[in-house]
Amino acid sequence: MANQKQKQPEPVVVAVQPAENVPGLPARRLAAALIDEVLRAGTALDETYERMAPSFSLDAADAALARAIAITSFRKLGTIQNAINDRLERGSPRNSGPFEPILAAAAAQILFLGVPDHAAVDLAVRHLHEDARSSRYVALGNAILRRLAREREAILAEAVDPFEDTPPWLAESWRTAYGEDVAAAIAKAHAEEPPLDITVKSDAAGWAEKLDGIVLPTGSVRLRERVPVPSLPGFTEGEWWVQDAAAALPALLLQAKPGERIADLCAAPGGKTAQLAAMGADVTAVDRSGPRLRRLRANLERLGLSAEIVTADAVTWQAEPFDAVLLDAPCSATGTIRRHPDVAWTKSEEDRERLAALQARLLEAAARLTKPGGRLVYCTCSLEPEEGERQVETFLAEHPDFARSPIRPEEVGGLSEAIDANGDLRTLPHQLKGETPRLSGWTGFYATRLIRL
Ligand SMILES: C[S@@+](CC[C@H](N)C(=O)[O-])C[C@H]1O[C@@H](n2cnc3c(N)ncnc32)[C@H](O)[C@@H]1O
């Protein structure tokens, strides 16, 4: 974008070289564009990044920096917005174009990423100049960011509310479901960057040693360091795949046996399909998204595993009933906020209600596809009971031909705190204590195992 300077109230930066060549500015452009697009369109940060990053032509280091700025902005969005708004005496300026995302990205750098203040402020000011709408507020943006830098210690010391970075509707939902203390522990767990977990085909201890990891009680391997995944031993050879430790549990609960016919409904990108195929089951993976199924196919190919792949709406798809059915239903994904902090700001109560209605239809379809005596595991990566416990309560009340098959602690590495009074799995982000806060926690998942009588 050309640096079309408008007349400024107060010239703050003297550009000594063309803006396009200023080191670090392209990364900030992408970071602010990601924040803006995710918040406006409600799209997932990962997908938005994959779609937008190529047109910014960044080198690997700048691309990683842009991503880190965007993800930190979402992880700390409440604190950042409060800090900025408290210093905007007349509220956020109207029609100011990218003013807000540029300031949020700069605030993330100043408050949380350890970027030198002068670099964060200077680049943000240059960036504000680039758009005619935000260029009118360069002096304001500059003043606010300098105050954030000066007042950093006080801002961080004051941000003690555990729900500072949680939208109020979510905090309220968790308080109602789990009580004040657990809700606060969940919100606090989201402040930490998550570790990388992998599922191995075999020899967890051997892979843990090779990759500097820890074997978790459930059998997943947790890596101590965050490293670029494709460069790790065993990735190209297809010995393991990336999968959160809690996300690996529902497929285990299906207790698949070699040769059994299993339907994996809502299967892409295939983490659970891979587990079931690795157990020797004859898996049919169904998903309605062609692009996501292409990723599933590529993942299975790398892993040397196979499954029948079907592009279909699982609500209406018909087949001979299966020995077992896994339904990993689409959901609000609030259990994944630690890994995907954007989810907290893009999902709403309306999404939760809409998705709960879809889950009920999918559960009906999954029941039809389960043969008498067969198992049905229903799961979601949501912390909201509407998408888990309540969904299954309603289903069981309407289906006397199904009964719960309670999950036993030894099926989940002895972690009895992850099993509720009904014998369902309910993992929460602050569970699974590790050596450090960063090596602790997992995704919030709900899973129930039902038997068709
Ligand atoms: C939670 S993700 C599945 C993750 C996957 N099971 C795994 O372990 O990698 C939910 C999936 O449901 C798919 N989906 C949503 N609605 C669907 C429907 N009506 N029929 C089939 N698939 C659907 C989405 O395309 C998405 O891939």
Structure description:
The protein has 453 residues and is an alpha/beta fold. It has two domains: 19-158, N-utilizing Substance Protein B Homolog, Chain A; 196-452, Rossmann fold (3-Layer(aba) Sandwich). Helix content is 42%, strand content 13%. The protein has 18 helices and twelve strands. The chain has helices spanning 25-41, 45-52, 60-75, 77-86, 99-111, 117-129, 132-135, 138-150, 152-158, 168-178, 180-189, 204-210, 249-253, 271-278, 290-303, 343-346, 349-368, 389-398, and strands at residues 196-200, 213-215, 221-223, 240-242, 261-265, 282-287, 308-311, 322-328, 370-380, 402-404, 425-426, 446-452. The strands form two sheets. Strands 5, 6, 7, 8, 9, 10, 11 and 12 form an eight-stranded mixed β-sheet that branches. Strands 2-3-1-4 form a four-stranded antiparallel β-sheet, covered by helices on one side. It starts with 24 loop residues before the first helix and ends with a strand. Residues 1-16 have low confidence and may be disordered. The site of S-adenosylmethionine has 17 residues, from helix 14 and strand 6. S-adenosylmethionine (SAM) binds at residues 266-272, 286-289, 292, 313-315, 328, 330.
